[in-house]
């Protein structure tokens, strides 16, 4: 009789659960039984592990073999259990000292020839191992850089099962073909929804806000949203620059700090979208799914193992919905929960999974189906009823959660041919955004909130109050039914962001009125304040 055990990690959403992998050998007919709620991919590991052991020059035990995955009540998924199963079987058969693998956590898929391939979710798996007090992890060598992002854990990067056995025995690493070391994990086409930018590509210049011609009001609204974490709606005709504005929003957002970088990188590790040369994401992601995307592609889920959707891939970054009225109404309304809570819950018959989804939403829309209802609208072929039905696809409850609404006017010839440098560069705007966020962070230091958009309305009305006369116009709009209670709270949030941008100790009447205009999209008066917004 032989028995050995080691450890691995299974992922439940973005959280890892440390699993004990036990191998037991008994006299009897040669069989291989795998227990502990394995999925189909894991059941197939029996054949992969057997072939990998034999092709690595070791003898497969000709006895009754039982491999148990504990805790048995947690579903086990993926091919990352191949390596720990193989190590436990060999230790149980006497090839290895069982004590040598008891304290190790192993993650990796085995090829039939014993080569080791990385799996998705290495980073959250190592994070879970570190949280459980595990000090050493074994991962494929091509994923070692990703695993080493977790502090306090010793990472062993191995290229094959033979490499691991040699290291455990204290022998020199075996000579292996270079191709073994170059095996990587390509992007998962099922996990990439629309345009996904996790940082500037190698050798390419980041998109700069100075590239946008004109659009002073929209550019300023972009700055306000970046400073306070507010959601944005852009309405304008095709070619006005809505997409250009949205694509440049990540460039003025502050860089991700340490915990946020690991959190975002863990989500993208599960989705298979991490760049091998940049395993730690330090810039906010940008995700722009196509309007034909399905519900699972946007909010997460899918058949088999639930995957993070676009709202999670945009976590701590920007989710851009271009041609937003063309999206399914069910998909758009599904955004209401993550917009409020910062998480998305995927319910399945086997249980519920939570994915992080605290993103900055930017929606863009044409003013009508033909897109030419702007200015005088003389070229528009749509009736007023058609225009109403088109924009009515964006439900009232969803639009009520949008803090800033801006009309993007058609660019004039003078603006288009303006000399270079007419518009501010992203780095200049980003400096003001960072300064505003630092002021908000000092004010919110003793709370769990980081930006103004996260502050509950009750706190804004009781803890950080605004002068009553500053709320005159907002109060009148609320009494006349133009503004809901949620809308008033969001006006106050934007007003605090404007105050932070101007270094005001509290919002002034001008800050509140400007926030109200951004909220309702109604420009009143014919003057301009120091914000640069027309009135």
Automatic annotation (TrEMBL):
Transmembrane segments: none annotated. Residues 309-367 form the MCM C-terminal AAA(+) ATPase domain. Keywords: ATP-binding, Nucleotide-binding. SUPFAM superfamilies: P-loop containing nucleoside triphosphate hydrolases (SSF52540), Ribosomal protein S5 domain 2-like (SSF54211). One of its GO terms (molecular function) is DNA binding. It holds the Pfam family ChlI. It comes from the Bacteria. Coiled coil: none annotated. Belongs to the Mg-chelatase subunits D/I family. ComM subfamily. NCBIfam families: YifB family Mg chelatase-like AAA ATPase (TIGR00368). PANTHER family: COMPETENCE PROTEIN COMM, MAGNESIUM-CHELATASE SUBUNIT CHLI. This is Mg chelatase-like protein.
């Amino acid at each position: 009789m032989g028995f050995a055990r080691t450890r691995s990690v299974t992922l439940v959403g973005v959280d890892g659960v440390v699993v004990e992998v036990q191998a037991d050998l008994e006299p009897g007919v040669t069989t291989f039984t795998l227990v502990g709620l394995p999925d189909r991919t894991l059941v197939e590991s029996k054949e992969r592990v057997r072939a990998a052991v034999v092709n690595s020059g070791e003898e497969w035990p000709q006895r009754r073999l039982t491999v148990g995955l504990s805790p048995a009540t947690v579903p086990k998924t993926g091919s990352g259990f191949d390596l720990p199963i193989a190590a436990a079987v060999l230790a149980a058969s006497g090839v290895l000292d069982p004590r040598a693998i008891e304290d190790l956590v192993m993650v990796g898929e085995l090829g039939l020839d014993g080569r080791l391939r990385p799996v998705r979710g290495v980073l959250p798996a190592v994070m879970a191992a570190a949280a459980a007090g595990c000090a050493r992890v074994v991962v494929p060598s091509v994923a070692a850089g990703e695993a080493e992002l977790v502090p306090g854990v010793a990472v062993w990067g191995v290229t094959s099962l033979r490499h691991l056995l040699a290291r455990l025995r204290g022998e020199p690493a075996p000579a292996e073909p270079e191709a073994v070391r170059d095996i990587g994990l390509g992007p998962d086409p099922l996990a990439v929804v629309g345009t996904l930018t996790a940082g500037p590509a190698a050798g390419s210049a980041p998109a700069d806000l100075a590239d946008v011609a004109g659009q002073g009001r929209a550019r300023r609204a972009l700055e306000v949203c970046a400073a306070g974490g507010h959601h944005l709606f852009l309405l304008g005709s095709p070619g006005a620059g809505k997409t250009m504005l949205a694509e440049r929003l990540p460039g003025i957002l502050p860089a991700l700090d340490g915990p946020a970088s690991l959190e975002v990188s863990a989500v993208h590790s599960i989705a298979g979208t991490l760049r091998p040369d940049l395993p730690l994401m330090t810039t906010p992601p940008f995700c722009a799914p196509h309007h034909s995307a399905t519900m699972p592609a946007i909010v997460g889920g899918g058949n088999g193992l639930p995957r993070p959707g676009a709202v999670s891939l945009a976590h701590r970054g920007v989710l851009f919905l271009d041609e937003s009225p063309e999206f399914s109404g069910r998909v758009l309304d599904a955004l209401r929960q993550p917009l409020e809570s910062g998480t998305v819950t995927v319910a399945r018959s086997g249980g519920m999974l939570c994915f992080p989804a605290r993103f900055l939403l930017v929606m863009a829309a044409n003013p009508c189906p033909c897109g030419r209802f702007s200015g005088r609208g003389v070229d528009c072929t749509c009736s007023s009823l058609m225009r109403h039905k088109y924009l009515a696809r964006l439900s009232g409850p969803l639009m009520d959660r949008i803090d800033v609404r801006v009309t993007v006017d058609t660019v004039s010839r003078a603006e288009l041919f303006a000399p270079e440098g007419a518009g501010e560069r992203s780095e200049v705007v980003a400096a003001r955004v960072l300064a505003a966020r630092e002021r908000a962070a000092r004010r919110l230091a003793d709370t769990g909130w980081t930006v103004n958009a996260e502050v509950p309305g009750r706190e804004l009305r009781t803890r950080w109050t605004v002068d009553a006369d500053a709320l005159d116009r907002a109060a009148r709009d609320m009494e006349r039914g133009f503004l809901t209670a949620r809308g008033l709270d969001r006006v106050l949030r934007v007003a605090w962001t404007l105050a932070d941008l101007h270094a005001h100790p509290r919002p002034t009447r001008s800050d509140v009125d400007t926030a109200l205009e951004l909220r309702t999209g109604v420009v009143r008066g014919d003057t301009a304040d120091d914000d640069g917004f027309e009135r």
